[in-house]
Amino acid sequence: MRIETERLVLRPWEERDRAPFAAIVGDPHVMRFYTHPRSREQADAWFDRMVEGFVRGTSRFLAAERKSDGALLGLVGTADIDFEIPTNPKTEVGWVLGQAYWGKGYAPEAAGASLAYAFETVGLQEVVAFTAHQNLPSQRVMEKIGMRRDASADFDHPRIPEGHPLRPHVLYRISNPRSA
Ligand SMILES: CC(C)(COP(=O)(O)OP(=O)(O)OC[C@H]1O[C@@H](n2cnc3c(N)ncnc32)[C@H](O)[C@@H]1OP(=O)(O)O)[C@@H](O)C(=O)NCCC(=O)NCCS
What we know:
The chain is an alpha+beta fold.
């Protein structure tokens, strides 16, 4: 599969993406809302899970590549949520971009195209997004792609220890416009 936007291509991961992906998720500033930056080993395991998930059909977290120079900007896409979440649906849209690529509207451009694919091609009825309360840039991206906060569905992330300041998460939703 391949999703094209004006400035970007979203495509399956290739081996050449492994090192730039590890650099992105190894950056403490990029990962400040994810409790810790990932070591090379952790980044490789994350990369492998995305590749396996794509093969199984449970993940469309894709490589976001810039058309003008082929740079790997990061990961963007939709995927089945792989932990217990106290709400439906169980599909999320998400993104992690390298710091050098922030502030140019790439995340909304890529995530908006991922949602369009999820609704028009996959036929999903609804998609959620979630992040730590403190992650305002990502909440802004959620709003820019038409998602709306559902405060009644906020939850504590089960993989973040109790008492950790990043445990409380906000949840945003968007429905397939065709099913409205
Ligand atoms: C979230 C992220 C992808 C932003 O992507 P981006 O391509 O830079 O998005 P944009 O260019 O649209 O800019 C982000 C928006 O957030 C806003 N923003 C930035 N910092 C902000 C802050 N501290 N408070 C509120 N809004 C903020 C920007 O002003 C911009 O909105 P605007 O265009 O209305 O001015 C990037 O910050 C990232 O990868 N973060 C790390 C990983 C992460 O947290 N992922 C999300 C998990 S759900």
